[in-house]
Amino acid sequence: MPTTNNIRKPNNRTNRTAAPVEDAYGRPQPQNLEMEQAVLGALMIEQDAYSQVSEVLRPESFYDHRHQLLFDAIRSLNAQQRPVDILTVRDYLESTNHLEDAGGPIYLMQLSQNVTSSAHIDYHARIIAQKALARELITFSSQVQQKAFDTTIDVDDLMQEAEGKLFAISQQNLKKDYTQINPVIHEAYELLQKAAARRDGLSGLSSGFPHIDKLTSGWQNSDLIIIAARPAMGKTAFVLSMAKKIAVDNHVPCAMFSLEMSNVQLVNRLIVNVCEITGDKIKSGQLEPYEWGQLDNRIRQLYDAPIYLDDTPSLSVFELRTKARRLVREHGVKIILIDYLQLMNASGMSFGSRQEEVSNISRSLKGLAKELNIPIIALSQLNRSVEKREGDDGKRPQLSDLRESGAIEQDADMVCFIHRPEYYKIYQDEKGHDMHGMAEFIIAKHRNGAVDTVRLKFRNEYARFQDTDEDAYIPMPGETITFGSALNTNDVPDGPPLPSSQSVGGGEPLPPADDQNTPFGPPPSMGDMPF
């Protein structure tokens, strides 16, 4: 039940009117006392009036402290489903010992007598809310200005804190009204016509993998898609393979935020993917003459590709929101990729635990996807429980393996896993199909479609995922549908995984790559590259 404990006390309890507070330049703070009186009077003469303003106003929206107390009393009575009028409001204020602070019985009578109806209460309420928002921004900017003069405060920390508080203010005051169904039907019908007109039959953005698109109908606008896996499964290789198909092959603008790898490392992986030259050769520069020609010829595909990279470390969800808005507005970005979610933070806001922070991040990503009306794909780590389970089936990831927060599963429209049985020395599935060089893309949660498993080929030497060469086999009744070929046995040789770090020219080993089973670790800078 709402209480009055959090409402600020007036500086002078004997003062019956609210003296406008002036700022440093002698200007009164934004407020409209007549509007506040009109709204409160209407709320006490018409029982249904509160429903029109309940989503717009809070006690803090009112400038006059008396009005804050009165609105809180009205809100509490409505929460208790009790009638609201002059008498019930007065009794409630008496019971909480706030009647005199709220102006007394005579002031309540004056408020109700000055209003004849609640005809314009929603309009008046929005004006009050706008004035309150302006006051919040004035207070916020004053605090930031004061801290900016304090030389003991780190400017970067202050920016993070300011961004977090500004984001909280915007979320608190962001209200979206309801919509009658007719225009929504019209919009849905238009989308259906557009999907029908497409030759590929997709209603969303193609991933570049036909069998995945068949299950998802493409990545849908406003969806948050989580792709999770254990280390060395190839999460980064998968999204880079997808980015290449989306931006390079289909010329659709995409943005990738990498919190783990630098922009140069990402581009070098794309070079390996596109040019089909192994990562160790790209790192060492020891290319054969024909490979130099292959590099010069194929690298041209990457020039002018609409791929936008950001390698800001420890990116906050507030920074992401600002950058994503600009990318969509200025460059028409149609999809955002994040590598990876657990490296993000929500600095500027306080949380009781890391799980609460991750929950806030996943919620914010879903809200951003809806706001920008584009799909957002975020990579995620799985916890170590996968490694502890025994048996072939035990190594397959489950929704409960999502690391740090169950809220990720709740917020996501789709949760997918990447699983490579070969990494666990599992070379045949339960049907006897060869799993050398094969990967499974497992759709474990699909809010608007089916869950299933798609089989892909993993080209280890190029850190690349691609469709299998053969068509999907026909499943037996009751068998899970998978796609792929059981004949691709020569892509990755049988044997132990490749080392996670490689020596270049006999020097010190390079740091391990994200995908420990791929021969592609952090590459040299572009200035060190021979092209």
Structural account:
The chain has 531 residues and is an alpha/beta fold. The chain has helices at residues 33-45, 50-53, 65-79, 86-95, 104-113, 121-148, 155-172, 181-197, 210-216, 235-249, 263-275, 279-284, 289-298, 317-331, 354-372, 385-388, 407-411, and strands at residues 224-229, 254-258, 307-310, 335-339, 376-381, 414-419, 438-446, 452-459, 464-467. α3 (65-79) packs across α4 (86-95) and α14 (317-331) packs parallel to α15 (354-372). It has a nine-stranded mixed β-sheet, with helices on both faces. The longest helix is centred in the N-terminal third of the chain and has 28 residues, at 121-148. The protein contains 17 helices and nine strands. 39% of the residues lie in helices and 10% in strands.
